[in-house]
């Protein structure tokens, strides 16, 4: 798997049993094991809505958006379409994401919750003078290390086990190379309440 624009793998695929983990623009060609991002984002939105947030702001890198096949963008956009126009905040999706650009977006649109998987953005929210979760919520579509964050946590050990099963199946059936019909195994995540969201007044 990779996120490098213009990178080409120089490998004789027909010699190997193949399985990718995670998603990239290459994953469609191979059997793959991935986080069930659509289900995870839908679950995330349900919990955020239940807490009373209604001005969501999505922040991500453009390359990440492409690599994830626009799943996060589409789920958040679907929620926003159900909100009044004045509550629909434009996404901040940019490969040249900067602290100044983020501060400008944050001050201009004043979201009540930031949906983002970037550690820098967590720090920028704090540097803006806002307290999490007192002034603004922060939720992560895929939690990695921060144990106090609210968001979705995936079991990467289970992903690894599933990938081994996919490889073993190909070896057992003497299958090699790029498959005629690629298959995907989706691993569901679990909601982690964390400490970066709180129940909003009036809910």
Which SSEs are present, and which pair or pack?
Elements: E1 20-21, E2 32-35, H1 37-50, E3 56-60, H2 62-67, H3 71-81, E4 92-93, H4 99-109, E5 113-116, H5 119-127, E6 137-143, E7 150-153, H6 156-172, E8 184-187, E9 190-192
Parallel strand pairs: 1-2, 2-8, 3-4, 3-5, 5-6, 6-7
Antiparallel strand pairs: 7-9
Please, could you describe this protein's structure?
It is a single chain. By secondary structure, the protein is an alpha/beta fold. It has 6 helices and 9 strands. The longest helix has 17 residues, at 156-172.
Q: How many angstroms does the end-to-end distance come to?
A: 42 Å
- The strand order across the widest sheet is 4-3-5-6-7-9
Treating each run of at least 4 consecutive H or I residues as one helix, how many helices?
6
- State the helical fraction: 25-40%
Q: Mean pLDDT, nearest integer?
A: 91
Overall body shape = elongated
SSE sequence, one letter per element: EEHEHHEHEHEEHEE
User: How many beta strands in the DSSP annotation?
Assistant: 9
Query: How is the biggest beta sheet arranged?
Result: 6 strands, mixed
List the uncertain runs: none
How large is the radius of gyration?
A: 19 Å
Q: How do you describe this structure in short?
A:
With 203 residues, the chain is α/β, with parallel strands linked by helices. The protein is built from six helices and nine strands; from the N terminus they run E-E-H-E-H-H-E-H-E-H-E-E-H-E-E.
What are its keywords?
elongated; alpha/beta; three-stranded parallel β-sheet; 203 residues; six-stranded mixed β-sheet; 33% helix
């Amino acid at each position: 798997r990779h996120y490098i624009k213009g990178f080409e793998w120089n490998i004789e695929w027909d010699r190997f049993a193949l399985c990718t983990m995670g998603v990239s623009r290459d994953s469609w060609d191979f059997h793959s094991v991935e986080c069930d991002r659509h289900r995870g984002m839908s679950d995330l939105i349900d919990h955020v809505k239940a807490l009373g947030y209604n001005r969501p702001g999505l922040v991500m890198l453009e390359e990440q958006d492409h690599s994830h096949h626009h799943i996060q963008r589409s789920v958040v956009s679907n929620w926003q379409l159900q909100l009044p126009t004045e509550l629909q905040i434009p996404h901040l999706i940019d490969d040249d994401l900067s602290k100044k650009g983020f501060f400008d977006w944050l001050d201009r649109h004043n979201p009540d919750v930031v949906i983002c998987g970037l550690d820098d953005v967590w720090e920028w929210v704090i540097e803006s003078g806002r307290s999490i979760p007192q002034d603004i919520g922060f939720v992560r579509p895929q939690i990695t290390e921060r144990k106090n964050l609210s968001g979705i946590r995936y079991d990467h050990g289970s992903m690894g086990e599933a990938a081994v099963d996919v490889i073993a199946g190909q070896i057992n059936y003497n299958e090699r190379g790029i498959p005629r019909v690629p298959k995907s195994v989706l691993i569901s995540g679990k909601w982690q309440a964390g400490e970066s969201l709180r129940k909003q007044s009036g809910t």
